[in-house]
Amino acid sequence: xxxxxxxxxxKSVRAYDKEKQVSxxxxxxxxxxxxxxxxxxxxxxxxxxxxxxxxVLKDLVPACKDQKFVADCSCLIxxxxxxxxxxxxxxxxxxxxxxxxxxxxxxxxxxxxGIGSCWLGAFYEDRVKGLLNxxxxxxxxxxxxxxxxxxxxxxxxxxxxxxELKEIVCYDKWxx
Length: 176
Hints:
It is a single chain. The protein is α+β, with helices and mostly antiparallel strands. It has a single domain, classed as 3-Layer(aba) Sandwich (NADH Oxidase), CATH 3.40.109.10. The chain has helices spanning about 5-10, 25-35, 55-60, 70, 95-110, 125-130, 165-170, and strands at about 45-50, 75-80, 115-120, 140-145.
């Protein structure tokens, strides 16, 4: 399977099979993909918390804007950083970009393994930090649910419409 095939396979899954859990072996592959992600100046400022405890997942639902599927996932990855001062020359905070790359790596490896994921930005950081005892000097950038899709395999989930390339790409100078 090519990288592009895996990208096409990845979907945002919001309904999980409560009985089928992600194996520790597969979880380690997913976490290894985050470890190998590039980061600005190779700082690797990330920390990842893996939440598997069903009670904790249920307690996190209100902190995740009542997205009920959070309680049903096999595990949740909390992507954090405490090195928030470095701003790249382009003006962007490096830690947000770096963690985004790492979370993307995780979602793609999960897809390759037939595991669904959903990237969450809809959460209340202060509540997540409080529930998980994350120190105040850390920022929570993203949450990633992982689990096997309910009802059918990832490969059979229909992708929502995507814009055509001509709508999002121009060449040499701005021409939209």
